[in-house]
Amino acid sequence: MSTPIPKSHKRVVAIAKRAPLELHTVPTKAPEANEVLVRVSYAASSPLNLHVADGNLLGGLPNVGWNGAFAGSVAALGPETQTGLKIGDPVFGFTWRDNKEKSGQEYLTAPETMMGRIPDGADERAYATVPDSFVTAWHTLRTELGMKLPWPKPDGWKPRNVDTPVLVWGASSSVGWFALPLLKWAGYTNVVATAGMKHHERLKQLGATKAFDYRDGDVVEKLRDAAGPPGFRYFVDCIGSLEGSVRPIAQIAGPGSTIAIMLPVIVRTATETVEPIYSMDVKDPEIHVDWKDGSNPVGVRTHFYTKDEFAANNLQPVVMPALLQSGDIEPASYRIMEGKDMLERAEKALSLFRSGAVSGERLIWSTS
């Protein structure tokens, strides 16, 4: 049974670089053809929110809604929807293209192909940790690296280069959390991870065959030894930090390798007192990365996943729920942000990212 659509609702908005966030009252957009109106229960903050708020990444300010992953319930359906969603169904997804789709608000309106159904009785807070990071991991492996992720996966299927060395740098990040089990599900058997020592055992359960501490002064040499000749073929840089990941990887990546780097490249990290510097070009001569001849660094823009017709139509409504249901992937650990309203909760999440206090977990907050 449908409920009346409110004429307006609250939305968290970034208005200027490093300025306090604001809570705006905005019109609620009724769903059009193939769209769904979602009553958002929980939103997930990510480093991208910090990049926008502190660095005006991609120049969207002012009045940028808080985007990312969400969990909620179907409040209304537009005409011609085809995914089988019904009023009241619990859903989760990743939406971003304009403010009506952004997750940091009480209601969002987005295409039905940008969300999937949550099983009845499941923890919707946990499901809010999945969509943006899962989509990024899938897009990185399949599109940017050209690795085989067949869907549906044939019984007994294995990739041709099953034992090719793969390095996932920053594997305890939210993207790494899904990249490792996706590689395991797809049959890749030689996956090396870097992360803080406390995460190593969990990463091995997720699919890493070896794990190294990125803080180790000899980590570059240890990783070269772990790969053996001819070295790593594929790299996933989940961090995109110039000093923390990009330059160390450049010392390891040899001819014939492809390095997928999460954008932006963080040239200078944001703090409470320092404004960040970013680059959207992994080959930018001004950031001075000594890539070896024959290596192929590429920048990952998750939003481009919709250029793949299969992914645009199936990744969130079909593949993501199915892999969760089968147990091949699982929600990430999360921390709930407390506060008097969603503005305060979003600000707390932003401050934690700015202080570097987030490791191995997602930051989730209620929109109520």
From TrEMBL:
MF GO annotations: oxidoreductase activity, acting on NAD(P)H
Indicate whether Signal appears among the record's keywords. no
* Keyword annotations from UniProtKB, A to Z: Oxidoreductase
Q: Which residues form the signal peptide?
A: none
Q: Which residues form the Enoyl reductase (ER) domain?
A: 18-364
Q: Which InterPro entries match?
A: ADH-like_C, ADH-like_N, ER, GroES-like_sf, NAD(P)-bd_dom_sf, Trans-enoyl_RdTase-like
Oxidoreductase as UniProt keyword = yes
Assembly and interactions?
A: Monomer.
UniProt lists the family membership as follows: Belongs to the zinc-containing alcohol dehydrogenase family.
Task: State the name under which the record lists this protein.
Answer: NAD(P)-binding protein
